[in-house]
Amino acid sequence: QVQLVESGGGLVQAGGSLSLSCAASGRTFSGYTMGWFRQAPGKEREFVAAITWSGDRIWTGDSVKARFTISKDHFKNTIYLRMNSLKPEDTAVYYCAAGNSYGISVQGADYWGQGTQVTVSS
Question: Which of 31, 76, 77 is nearest to 56 (CA)?
């Protein structure tokens, strides 16, 4: 059974930093793309960042570029999202996802985590 378990969310002041983790288990993810998405109340789920399982390609959403960094630990089967210079508009539930493709989208993801809340106060 595939599991994506996020952790690391919480409350932080604007300008602060937070790191999220996503522990992946239950299958071999070779050839997959791992991604982070977020969804704020009343808004659609949006792409944040993604990385191929091999680590040779990274994508970052325009709204978080230069502030957020995605990375992975191959031996721990864990994906990370480092978030710097956080803004109140970054407040959302952050989801980890996995897709059996090069690149990932909301529609194309095969597996989703349960989500972790990130709240940025002004």
Answer: 31
Q: What is the pLDDT of residues 25-83, one digit of tens each?
A: 999 999 999 999 999 999 999 999 999 999 999 999 999 999 999 999 989 999 999 99
For the chain, the average pLDDT equals 96
Sheet holding 68-73, edge to edge: 3-7, 18-25, 78-83, 68-73
- Cα angle 108, 46, 21 (rounded to 5 degrees) comes to 85
Per-residue pLDDT, 94: 98
Amino acid code (one letter) for 45: R
3-state DSSP: the chain helix, strand, coil percent, rounded to 5?
0, 50, 45
Rg (alpha carbons) of the chain, rounded to whole number: 13
DSSP per residue over 34-59, as a string? Answer: EEEEEE-TTS--EEEEEEETTSS-EE
For residue 104, which of 28, 8, 36 has the smallest C-alpha distance? 36
Residue recorded with tokens 């109140």: 88
Q: What is the pLDDT of residue 12?
A: 98
